[in-house]
Amino acid sequence: MSSEQQAAGVGDLLSFDLTEQPWLPVLRTDGSTTDLSLRQVFAQAGEIRRLVGDLPTQDFALIRLLLAIVHDAVDGPEDTEQWAELWEDEAPFEPVGGYLDTHRERFDLLHPAAPFFQTAGLRTSKDEVFSLNRIVADVPNGEAFFTMRFPGAERITFAEAARWTVHAHGYDTSGIKSGTVGDPRAKAGKAYPQGVGWAGSIGGVLAEGHTLRETLLLNLIAADAGIVRTTGKDRPAWRREPCGPGAASDLAGRPHGIRDLYTWQSRRLRLHFDAQGVYGVVLSYGDPLSVQDRQTQEPMTGWRRSPAQEKKLGRPLVYMPREHDPARAAWRGLAALIADRDQDTSAAGEPANALRPGIVHWLAHLTTERFLPKDTLVRLHTYGAVYGTQQSVTEEITEDGVAVALVLLHETDRHLGQCAIDAVADADRAVKALGSLAGDLARAAGSEGDTSRNAALDLGYAALDHAYRTWLSSLASGDDPQERRAEWQRIARAEIRTTGRQLIAQAGQKAWAGRLVSGPKGEVWLCSDQAALWFAAGLKRALPLAAPAADPALNGEADAPEPPKVHA
Prior knowledge:
By secondary structure, this protein is α+β, with helices and mostly antiparallel strands. Helix content is 34%, strand content 16%. The strands form seven sheets. The protein has a three-stranded antiparallel beta sheet with strand order 4-3-5. A three-stranded antiparallel beta sheet has the order 8-14-15. A three-stranded antiparallel beta sheet has the order 12-11-13, with no helix packed on it. It is globular, with a radius of gyration of 27 Å. The termini are far apart.
């Protein structure tokens, strides 16, 4: 039965109860997919691999919703011992069933007075109803050719509308929106930019286990760990008074904790629907939340020190969320994920330039205190959104992840973690040598080297991507860091040498013949053979632990590429 048919009617009123109706898409451990209700997701969490929503960012937003429910249902965990009891419990989410019964009314998507994550009666002065394109994020503004919903999202099911409602609070764009009646911030029918949704302002990081049960528990941070600040007023949105059209009046000192933050109402939203589904929306700004210095409140992102913000705000120390670079694979930013919080301090005792995500610090705590084995394998899953044109459009959604053994996060034994970070630096140097080779080959052929160099950098990182992830996931307690790093350098050397040979073979007749170019020590005859010699030397410097005692140059007898054939 479809989601439209499952909307229950009471008199002339419709209801879509998220605790009972299926709306969360999941991938089961047996490979099948289905939609489940909130109650079913928690009851079957051990049989679910992960959520599989409409976008990766939607999965991240929904996981945070589920975490807020668990935190509130168990009222904690207050300490790591309570967390350990949940980890060992065959039914850790049993309290959630009764909790959902208690708050069931607030989980009704279509409730007339307190619809889930919406503002009842929200309207513009002209009673306009807008296209669902405003919340359905896979319909790019002005890029209708890149969506399956051409020309737009005209009507969606209640289940899908619920998912996009949660996503809008986390990832909605900025820009000018519709002013709503009763919102004192509205001017001439317009609501002026207040920034993107909270999750859109951070570089999301989630610890992912083998099942949804493990994922939820791994991200369930105990209060006594000292990672996030929590007050006695911490509660999720459904345990607060329903939002009016304006900003909440109690924002001072908030968010009060994880439950408050994970359900932050950054937008005011009202769905328009009939018995067949949702066909329109009213959307405006909700509760503002500044991004500066939230590192003790938001555990699912890394942080960077911002001299620009320090100067602007006149404060000696300001941290900003570390966003993900869509052009940079997650493993290349591994240091920002796993480096210890105080590792990046200067000799003079300056504050850290970067802080790793609180969730990683929590995993390190579980390992260091021996609540989890060192060889427990966890995937650090990253999520992000890239905005353009003053954050008014979503340009790109980013998603990646790296599997790491928890021993890499150990706070008192950092050797393997440092080995993994050093291996990324090894990869960077090796790829740089490959880029230099491509630039030299281009110059030998008489063209500019920048374009070829940049293309080669992409090739190099692509060649190392799978190899590094596989090597990283194999690191285990008891490994010798020096031996494992030497192993990685041998792997990287083999991959980059292979790619280098391909570049040399494809360089063409002009590069093989060469020409006279200016060098740091005067003019030199540059040809593909000379470029190969320089590349071999550069690779040896980049990966010294991998170089054999007698390292044949790429243009040596064993490795010499055949010169391009000359046709009469």
